[in-house]
Write a structure and sequence with these properties.
Number of helices: 13
Order of helices and strands: EEEHEHEHHEHEHHEHEEHEEHEHEHEEEH
Strand content: 15-25%
Structural class: alpha/beta
Number of strands: 17
Radius of gyration: 24 Å
Strand order of the largest sheet: 3-4-5-6-7-8-9-11
Length: 425
């Protein structure tokens, strides 16, 4: 079932849709469907101290408003567990309904048992089978978390991770491989251990009584080719809903490129029901960047639509003026800043395409392909900027107010095209 009106018009025929079980995360109007025929869901995670209720509420709200449809918080100690219901309540009063996921490691079973209000407040629990417990305690503690999820009607993400792989399972598979007639390389055995860790844990959860439509799997690694191989294998062996993402993508362009490459291949093959781009933020950086990148991956590939697209040329010797660069940046920021209001006021506005071009070579053609576009004069060209609307030349702008004039034209176009069906106040 689609989550957003605009998504119901998206054609998924451009990629094969993997058949996965749909999982409902959350309750009421804030519930999000992961898997099945639902659109691919964007997820993110806070990096605040969860015990700091004010800071965590601020960041969850910022991530949700940026477009994160699920938000994960760390629950690592008693103070964090005690804070979870207060975080949930404050967000509700602010009108923020994104489901909250509790990230549990080592002592999740104890925290959920000691803090029943936390167990009730969270919409999903994340369990890492590599550190949920060790030796004879592993199955017991895993089972306690699953039983808590059943009791409270919650979903569970079983998330294997390359950096905290189940060592007993890995050792067993390595020993088997060592005596095999044709041993695999160690990296291949580790990938198999990742897959088995997730699937064996999911089977155990179902044996305890957790329904399949309450389970999401992930198997995160930090190398692109490993991630692709692991998720292809998971897809071949199961139909659980899958959460995708590199576990440590990195910082800046490296993290963006690595995540885009890995997610792009898998999403095109129909693999993946929810995604996260795990970027290392710059010091005091904006956590919302990972949400923006995830949305741009989905929108660039044509699987979801979140915000109007601005096409702009890269510039060359014909565009020694920076006017088109400044205007492209202004338009991009203008649309992004207006979207929280426009999304409600103008249904479908996220499908808008705008072009801001820098010279006569490709400018008129690109502008004609956009819903509304402008072709600015390049070096040595006549100081005039033709504007194209719906493929036809509509007018020519001149003078020092070109940027303001074009923004006004964009706003007028949006009102005329998308303002017919007004959203209720």
């Amino acid at each position: 079932m689609p989550l957003h009106k605009a998504d119901s018009d998206i054609a998924f025929g451009s990629r094969p849709r993997r058949l996965s079980v749909g999982v409902r995360v959350g309750e009421g109007g804030g519930a999000v469907i992961v898997g099945g025929s639902a659109p691919i869901v964007v997820q993110s995670m806070t990096n605040t101290d969860t015990a700091d209720v004010e800071a965590t509420v601020r960041q969850v709200a910022a991530l949700a408003r940026a477009g994160s449809e699920l938000v994960r918080i760390t629950v690592d100690r008693d103070e964090a567990a005690a804070a979870a219901p207060h975080i949930r309540d404050r967000l509700a009063r602010m009108g923020v309904s994104a489901p909250l996921i509790g990230d549990f490691h080592y002592i999740g079973h104890k925290l959920l048992a000691d803090h029943p209000a936390c167990a009730e407040a969270l919409d999903k629990y994340r369990i890492n089978p590599g550190n949920v417990g060790f030796r004879n305690k592993r199955d017991l503690q895993f089972g306690q978390i699953v039983e808590m999820a059943i009791r409270h009607g919650k979903c569970v993400r079983i998330g294997a991770n390359w950096g905290s792989l189940d060592q007993e399972l890995l050792t067993h598979l390595m020993d088997e491989n060592a005596v095999a007639p044709k041993p695999l390389e160690a990296r291949a055995v580790m990938r198999e251990a990742m897959v088995q860790s997730a699937l064996l844990s999911a089977a155990r959860a179902e044996e305890i009584g957790l329904a399949r439509d309450r389970i999401i799997l992930s198997a995160k690694v930090s190398a692109v080719q490993d991630l692709i191989t692991v998720y292809r294998t998971l897809t071949a062996r199961s139909n659980y809903a899958l959460h995708l993402g590199l576990t440590e993508a990195g910082m800046g362009s490296k993290g963006i490129v690595a995540s885009s490459a890995a997610l792009g291949v898998l999403l095109q093959e129909g693999i993946g029901d929810t995604i996260r781009v795990s970027l290392t933020p710059e010091p005091n950086g904006d956590r919302r960047l990972e949400v923006k990148v995830a949305q741009e991956v989905l929108q660039t590939m044509g699987f979801r639509t979140f915000t109007p697209q601005v096409a702009a040329c890269p510039g060359c010797g014909r565009t020694t003026s920076i006017v088109f660069q400044e205007l492209a940046g202004e338009i991009q920021s203008y649309l992004a800043d207006a979207m929280p209001v426009w999304r409600k006021k103008y249904p479908g506005v996220e499908t808008l395409n705008v072009a801001v071009m820098g010279c006569i070579v490709n400018g008129p053609g690109e502008s004609k392909h956009a819903d509304i576009g402008i072709s600015l004069p390049g070096t040595g060209e006549t100081p005039a900027a033709p504007v194209f609307i719906d493929g036809a030349k509509a007018l020519v702008l001149r003078g020092p107010t070109i940027a303001a004039d074009f923004k006004a034209l964009v706003a007028d176009y949006i009102d005329k095209r998308f303002g017919g069906e007004k959203a209720p106040p």
